[in-house]
Automatic annotation (TrEMBL):
GO terms for molecular function: transferase activity. Gene3D superfamilies: 3.90.1200.10. Residues 19-229 form the Aminoglycoside phosphotransferase domain. This is Phosphotransferase. It comes from Alkalihalobacillus alcalophilus ATCC 27647 = CGMCC 1.3604. InterPro entries: Aminoglycoside_PTrfase, CcrZ_PhaseVar_Mediator, Kinase-like_dom_sf. It comes from the Bacteria.
Amino acid sequence: MRVNWLEMFLGEGWKVKPAGGITGEAYIAQQGDQKVFLKRNSSPFLAVLSAEGIVPKLLWTKRLENGDVVTAQRWVHGRELKSYEMKKEMVANLLGKIHGSSELLDMFKRIGNEPLTPDVIYENLRLQLQLFDIVDEPIKQGMNYLEEKLPDIDYEHYVVCHSDINHNNWMLTEEDQLYLIDWDGAIVADPALDLGLLLHTYISKEDWNDWIAQYGLDLGDSLQERMQWYVISQSIASIIWHLERAEYEQAEEMKRYLITFLK
């Protein structure tokens, strides 16, 4: 969608510029003092996320003649969280609220999304490795671990997971309101999928008990095993992603990260 077309769509006086991001589908629109965040074909449950205060307020949604949907959200003045701020109680509280939201889960299921189970994750990784003919010892060890542990990580209480809880996706406003943005990759899965990456990446192990208590759980052996399983599977997926794009240096870095979990 071109910026000029968007300006015509919004009407006289609006100026639009790209907001960046991987998809290139996000824009900032401004008319005088009024400023909004626009996105094309954003998450279908943006309205629920907005209603629950998880993302900035949804102002309107419009379907175009070609079937595309444009959403406008209130522009908020804020900043991304720093990596060291991920240990804050507000992060644990918001993620606990997201994972505990029955409204989000119901909405996600209504649009036909099935839970992403460990069996499906393992099989998808196996097929990708086969398709791209990736043979590598750390990956082989990781896949063996995933297969061996499959029976031990069965979990039935699936939730809506963001699946990319990088600190860059957490926005803190000037009024100290915390949001988790960029929901394009959201899935229904074991909450350990989000928790594992967050804790292993940002929280010192001696602080896990306190952080998980703030989130609303006890840190038991089952949760720790499931978190490790998902972090290993996500690491292998990341290696494949970088290799597909010939980003060999990043792939090697992820392999070194993977090895730390297999010792």
